[in-house]
Fold this sequence. Notes:
Elements (H helix, E strand, L loop, with lengths): L8 H12 L3 H4 L3 E11 L8 E7 L9 E2 L11 E2 L1 H9 L4 E7 L3 E2 L2 E2 L3 E12 L2 E3 L2
Antiparallel strand pairs: 1-2, 1-8, 3-4, 5-8, 6-7, 8-9
Amino acid sequence: MRRPRFVDQGRAERWKREDEAPRLRELFPDLVALQLQTRERQHADSKGGVSCTRPIAVGSAGALFEVRCGNPKCDNPGHDITSWVIGALRRGETNFDGDDPCSGLVGQHECTRVLHFVVSATWRKADTLVAD
């Protein structure tokens, strides 16, 4: 995969982990499409936040789902929701969501950011596409 020449060390390490991860296509040959929606909030009970929707390239993507913490002062490299996503895909789920609180520190205080994620999967079943 083509990558920019100048990146920070954390991003380079994440890309390395992604490149080394098994491919989604290998783990889930009947997975046709995958979409990840994220919204990071300041606190678990706060409204709004920064949101992003990403289609995942199932044919080439690694089975690694990490989202960087949005607080630039946080020492945590990000939210690793890989086990949530892979677990739900192993159960054949089509729509699932969850919340992942940041485990990092901002100075000497806990980071209060919370990542809410929604995943939509489309599966091939007996030559038929199934999606919710």
